[in-house]
TrEMBL record:
CDD domains: DNA_BRE_C. One of its GO terms (biological process) is DNA integration. This is Tyrosine-type recombinase/integrase. It comes from Halovenus salina. Residues 137-354 form the Tyr recombinase domain. GO terms for molecular function: DNA binding. It comes from the Archaea. InterPro entries: CB, DNA_brk_join_enz, Integrase-like_cat_sf, Integrase_catalytic, Integrase_recombinase_N, Integrase_SAM-like_N, Tyrosine_recombinase_XerCD. The keyword DNA-binding applies.
Length: 360
């Protein structure tokens, strides 16, 4: 099979046994989804069709931000896996919801295979566990303080130090932290700006925000976080400019860090053996499979980036800030905040009300 261009449209050229070349049409992900829903309209109920379009649409939207995916034909097994990890680690999505998304996507992939647009992907897809309604993994204030104290002592103003401090103080999503440019940070006033930047030239990475333009806002920082960022900029930040002429706030020697890189940093620094030199599950630290940066996620006590966000939101609520103010700061609706983020017990809520009402 080879690729040729005809009338400006990239198509797949398939050589038949007779030596002739047949053409397989190319569709963008959005065009493929539109064709798929039209074909299924007669055999699916309106509600099922709506759910399919909504679930598969999340993958189609994700494809728009991948520089190496122009047509649905460009998708491979790794893209499917990357999308699943993106949804699992960066979105406030229940496991059952993720399962439904991936089930719908597998049905769509099978249809693409039946049309010759994809090959041998659907059967290799590994569906996520659907047993849990919602994740409840959190990190408490004392643990966060222990991590920050360790970083402050041994890895002050490094990339991982600034990353954790920003996530704990602001409750930002991992993608939002990654999206920050140097010009988005305002040292004198101690705040950052968040901008939805989905467009990018070839070869560079887009930095969209989850709720697009609605996620754009200015977020105040505590003074200690601003001082930490200042010291990072003056000492450890590597000067980088991407192909779009943007200067990332957080950088590596390769440029703006990928989500995977930031995710691994969070997983690594939240291992108890990292910041306390102790293992609560009685593993031998030196020989533990999770004792390296690249394998840290296999530690049962390490924390996902989104759990840092969830815990930070709970901490702000515990300090007595209103749901409306926290909702605005963290870019999450009050309803979703109460359902998926507020991890306080009824006793904690009652004690907080007693304190705020000065009932002692």
């Amino acid at each position: 099979m080879g690729r040729i261009r005809t009338a400006g449209l990239l198509r797949e050229g398939v050589v038949t046994p007779g030596g002739e070349t047949t053409m397989t049409r190319q569709f963008t992900p959005d065009q493929a989804l539109e064709r798929y829903t039209k074909e299924r309209r007669s055999d699916l109920s309106d509600s099922t069709l709506y759910n399919y379009r909504s679930n598969i649409g999340q993958f189609v939207e994700w494809c728009e931000y991948q520089s190496d995916i122009e047509y649905i034909n460009d998708v491979d097994q790794f893209d499917i896996s990357d999308f699943q990890m993106y949804k699992r680690d960066d979105d406030e999505v229940a496991d059952t919801t993720l399962y439904n998304v991936m089930m719908a996507l597998r049905t769509f992939v099978k249809w693409c295979e039946s049309k010759g647009l994809l090959e041998d992907i659907a059967e290799s897809m590994i569906l996520p566990d659907r047993g849990r309604a919602a994740r409840t993994e959190t990190i408490d204030t004392e643990t966060a303080d222990d991590i920050l104290e360790y970083l402050d002592t041994f890895e002050y103003a490094t990339l991982k130090h600034v990353l954790f401090a920003l996530m704990w103080d602001t409750g930002l999503r991992l993608g939002a932290v990654r999206s920050l440019d140097l010009q988005d940070y305002h040292s004198a006033e101690s705040y950052i700006e968040l901008h939805h930047r989905p467009d990018t030239p070839a070869g560079s990475r887009a930095t969209p925000l989850k709720n697009k333009k609605k996620s754009e806002r200015e977020v105040n920082l505590h003074e200690w976080v601003a001082e930490l960022i200042d010291d990072y900029l003056h000492g450890n930040r590597i000067e980088q400019t991407d192909k779009a002429g943007r200067e990332p706030l957080l950088t590596t020697k390769h440029g703006r860090p990928a989500r995977t890189t930031l995710r691994r940093h969070i997983r690594a620094i939240t291992r108890p053996c990292y910041y306390s030199n102790e293992c609560p599950v009685d593993r031998e630290i030196e020989t533990c499979e999770a004792n390296s940066w690249s394998t840290a996620s296999s530690c049962p006590e390490s924390i996902k980036p989104h759990s840092i966000r969830r815990s930070a939101i709970t901490e702000w609520l515990n300090k007595g800030h209103s749901i409306e103010l926290v909702s605005d700061r963290m870019d999450v609706s009050p309803d979703v905040l109460e359902k998926h983020y507020d991890q306080r017990t009824e006793e904690e809520k009652r004690e907080l009300r007693r304190e705020l009402f000065e009932m002692d």
